[in-house]
Sequence to fold (429 residues):
Amino acid sequence: MESIKVALLGFGTVGQGTFELLVKNGDLIANRVGAPLQVTKIYVRNKAKYSHIALPEGTQFVESVEDVFTDPTIQVVVEVMGGTTFARECVEKALTLGKSVVTANKDLLAEAGPFLLDLAAKHKVDLRYEASVLGGIPIIRTLYESLAGNRITEIVGILNGTTNFILSNMTEKGAGYQEVLAEAQALGYAEADPTADVEGLDAARKLAILSSIAFNRRIFFEDVSVEGITKIDATDIAFGKEFGYTIKLLGIAKETKKGLSLNVHPSFISSDHPLASVRGSYNALYVKGNGIDDAMFYGRGAGSLPTGSSIVGDVMEVAKNIRTHHLGALQPFYFSEKNLYASGKIESSYYIRILVDNSTGVLAKVATKLAEQRISVQAVTQRNESETTSTIAIVTSSCPRSYIVNVINAFNNLRVVREVGSVIPIMAD
Ligand SMILES: NC(=O)C1=CN([C@@H]2O[C@H](COP(=O)(O)OP(=O)(O)OC[C@H]3O[C@@H](n4cnc5c(N)ncnc54)[C@H](OP(=O)(O)O)[C@@H]3O)[C@@H](O)[C@H]2O)C=CC1
Ligand SMILES: N[C@@H](CC=O)C(=O)O
Fold:
């Protein structure tokens, strides 16, 4: 039986996980596809870097990407380099040459996904990207196919493994931010530039990709309002625990009467909420649909083999389509013209932390400012920091974000307030 030839572009964490699975599960994969899959070429910039790796017969490293494009036997190109410039050139070229593409590149998908999907359809080839969102959790195809009969109203998720690993370790072990970030990098969870993880950009890209499918719109990274975890510190985590909350970086896309709102920001959630128990590099997505009601998808959101698992699943689907002449059958369905509601205008309860002078009546002054903005308080706690200062942590009732912006301005003008620290939305159960 003739094998289906595959090329890898890039051989880092994900490239190596993909290759390992294709080799070690080769028999099983061949049986399931109906033909063996063979990686014949792996494009890398510098072969010498990989000289310690013994490749099986029939697989070679190449240092020119043209060796892949000019090889007519290669039908599937797996792009696992990352970035949006060279990677985009390669993906466009492969599709235009009639080669199907599988990629894990959320940066590229969130920037140009709709364009690339149209290009794939035009050239009657497949573009698959399961690995671009939630690592090993099969969510793209689930939304695309299994949940296609639902009108989806909301998706809420922990979409980034690195930040979840950092926040879990800070919460459970009292670990320091920098130390845990370095560990996440060593484990292969973080992006080449981890700013994308900790500033929430990676989660925002994933939310754009998921929302495009769930809400049938062309949604891009720029449509998402983003805030990362860099301002969260141990004090907030400790106060959160006192109030019964756990901190998570959430991606939330919600249909409202005014349109779709898309937000990524740190959020307190009740410690009893199922998302609170999603720890370490695990990710999860909550989906609300008018048929399924609520469903939660959970698993490893990053790492070599989990992400490789999603890539291999996609390569197998493409290979089956090659065998059955069904390439290009999976068309994107962008048909909704609904407006985006200004993201960032989140109505919810909020946690506010302020540093104040230890003067008489300080709590009453703070309460007056809250009342003036029509904000009612659910809980409040005060902790002495020194002889002259203390921290006040407040949990408000649900109110529009604009009320919170106003009260923060008012606090900043209050002489007894030394500093307004964190302001964190609290997700309703
Ligand atoms: N790590 C993870 O858990 C996940 C990653 N992803 C995505 O998968 C993709 C790859 O990530 P990951 O494997 O972690 O990244 P790595 O940095 O580990 O690997 C990237 C590989 O691509 C190569 N590469 C980068 N740029 C070029 C280029 N211009 N020409 C040739 N080779 C290039 C690198 O080569 P060199 O060694 O020469 O730099 C390296 O081999 C990214 O899009 C990432 O966002 C998606 C889900 C999970
Ligand atoms: N850096 C990403 C990798 C997977 O997408 C993450 O931490 O989730």
